[in-house]
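[job 0412] stage=complex_fold ligand=magnesium ion status=START
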Amino acid sequence: MQIRHGIPVSPGVAITRAVVLDAVDQPIPRRLVPAEKIVEQRERLTAALNASAKDVEDLTARTAAEIGPEMAKIFDFHLAMLRDPQLVGQFEQMIDRERVTAEYAVYSAMRGLAAQFLAFENPYFHDRVKDVWDLERRILRNLLGGEGPDLSQIRHEAALIAHDLTPSQTASLDKTLIKGLATDAGGRTSHTAILAHALGIPAIVGLEDITAHISSGDTVIIDGNRGQVIINPDAAQLLEYRQYIEQIVKFETSLGKVARQPAITTDGTEVTLLANIEFPSEIAPAIEKGAVGVGLYRTEFLFLASEIEPAEQQQLDAYLQAIEAAAGRPLTIRTLDLGADKIHHHSVNFHAENNPFLGCRSIRLCLQNLSLFKTQLRAILRASAHGPIRIMFPLISNLMELRQAKMILSDVMEDLDEQGVPHATDIPVGVMIEVPSAALQAGKISREVDFVSIGTNDLIQYTLAVDRSNERIASLYTGAHPAVIQLIRDVIRAGHRAGIDVSLCGEMAGEPEFVMLLLGLGLRTFSITPPAIPEVKKIIRSVSIKQCQRVARRSLEFDSHREVHNFLREEVRRVVPDVFDGRRIAQ
Ligand code: PEP
Ligand code: MG
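[job 0412] stage=complex_fold status=DONE, emitting structure tokens
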């Protein structure tokens, strides 16, 4: 039995068998296999070596035909290594004698070979090191299936254990099979974390080396409330957790009633609770949970989930599906927020960047790829003829960007008019305030838009200079930092002064400890990941605005985020103790 701690990003508890998926570009941990599985490992190795030899032969033939036979000779060395009885024997012996996985045997022996080559004085061997690494990757790809973890390997209910997952891999997880998720990498608001929460899969990220401590088939408890993974729990722990799960189910059932009640404070102030979604199919369940509309539709996930760039019609179909599901409720469609961690390596727009979060992402990418941007705007506008929608531009960092985006929207409207294609003409246009420069200019921005939505996931990372997806600095990433609170306060004030609607759609809006603070700062529209809606509504229904204003005032007096956090937790616990009993607050 072993307990490892990480960052809880999606609540709930799962007790199940682990499936550990390695990735080619990550160190392969030394994992042991039971004696009866040795034959299977040997067979996997043979198949991967044969497949690799075939790959290299094909590559040799192609290179010879396209570039010339001289060039094709560079692969002779790869083939020689694959057929070298000493090297292959080393892989086999490691599996037989040390009882390790085939991937670890290959990884370890190839690293040993590279080290030997580097130790020789002859530069010929130094040049060959790259070939050794190249071949290692090829064999591992054939063993593991692709560059990242191969999710198609999972055929039974399991907790998925991996170094990291991309947002598109997470979006494709089959909820009926994946009961829990634990990763080495990741931060509180990485998109992988956000998606796991949206899918309702208990998840813990930032566990650093969890893949080295779990083997496929181990029993694990993924405790997404407390942020702990228990590996091979004993009988007493299993019993304790089964009782805990019963308690959670009871709590969830009690929250179910709240979903149908209005979000209104004890002194009669109405609060609007909207949902954050990635796919139109999430709208109906969000309404079930108590959402009265969609405050953030992350349209880039249609792109991340497709092999090729979705055409206008495909985008239109998705938006029409969303309009139908929203059935007249507000539907805020955010234009593409691609880039940074939401990248599609197959895309023509993909360029490796040194600082992707500060790079050509989001509205910047759209403004530099007008045909991509205009195609999406056409699809949104065409959909607007069928139901109410609002358009929201992400990552605005200056007024010029906003004006340019609005001008392009007008151009697309004119084109549609000329072609006689119907669309709404009074579509509310808003922006996300998620860059400190936009927060500081919120007054001016608010005079040029119909609404703003505060994106704290990015606002926190840019204000505090803390990468939202980096587990090594996750303790510095917090919405409780006084500087972040001040910015939020100022944006809400600026928006209200301009008479426009201000919402907050970062994860912070769904975190129980921040609800009283945000209400006290004047926020009246929350856009939240659907599973968190009932909990937030329960808090809203238990507090008065006066009480929240006092909480906000006190929060602004503290010097450090620690003090703010502790204070906020205490306050909310006082008002609604059962919300936090053994849940996220217990971390
Ligand atoms: C945000 O940045 O707060 C936000 C809601 O957008 P995303 O998480 O998609 O960057
Ligand atoms: Mg953002």
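The mean pLDDT is 91.
[job 0412] exit 0
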